């Protein structure tokens, strides 16, 4: 999917919502456990009920990988089930020496036809570039993450006072463009989102951390929105586990709609 196709979907739906698919057998409603593929049934119902409000889906690969070979089959079925006009993110946080990264890229872009994959920048250019060689596919590079451990390395300053995340943003812009490179910027770092926006004015940000992790959607929009919106705000648990009863998909729909309505107002205010 191209950047302009993504932006037109955002405008059409008045939404920049990414629904995170983090399906955990221990958390999904009990009645689904008798289905032949409970995780697929769960994701399918969530997708059917939230697709009106979402411009992206982000299956987190760990939740599928944890189930072994069957989990990979389920992931492929989920990826295939997501409507083709909705942006898909394989949240795999990959990255390795060049020839290995190339095969990771093939796995997610060719075998499963995802639009994008999350990539860790730690191993540098040759670990990221193979993902950038695919037409109309995207790298979503970890820049400033939402977790407490992000302080351990990402905020360390060099002798000139430049934090590591800033070096990641500056250097990686030599490898990709706003047409094929996005950044992960956590919603829990509200005070820093504006700084990241200055460093990467045109790139899309994938922003996890609203909802359960406590980030503020309005702050994200205030400091992070650009003239093409430039934001995909993810919520996983806050949507998919809104209810653990038979009405789980309808409850997910209500949560997704709530976020979309907030996003509509924010788009009107800042776009
Ligand atoms: P919830 O906190 O349940 O909304 O889930 C957040 C999702 O975003 C999980 O799948 C995380 O793995 C992912 N995530 C973060 O929470 N923080 C980050 O900095 C980066 C990610 C990610 O790359 O998606």
Automatic annotation (TrEMBL):
Keywords: Decarboxylase, Lyase, Pyrimidine biosynthesis
Ranges of residues in domain Orotidine 5'-phosphate decarboxylase: 16-252
Pfam families linked to this entry: OMPdecase (PF00215)
Catalyses which reaction(s): orotidine 5'-phosphate + H(+) = UMP + CO2
Pathway linked to the protein: Pyrimidine metabolism; UMP biosynthesis via de novo pathway; UMP from orotate: step 2/2
CDD domains: OMP_decarboxylase_like
EC class name: lyase
GO molecular function: orotidine-5'-phosphate decarboxylase activity
Source taxon at top rank: Bacteria
GO biological process per UniProt: 'de novo' pyrimidine nucleobase biosynthetic process; 'de novo' UMP biosynthetic process
Cited SMART domains: OMPdecase
Family: Belongs to the OMP decarboxylase family. Type 2 subfamily.
The protein, known as: Orotidine 5'-phosphate decarboxylase
Organism: Algoriphagus hitonicola
Protein encoded by which gene: pyrF
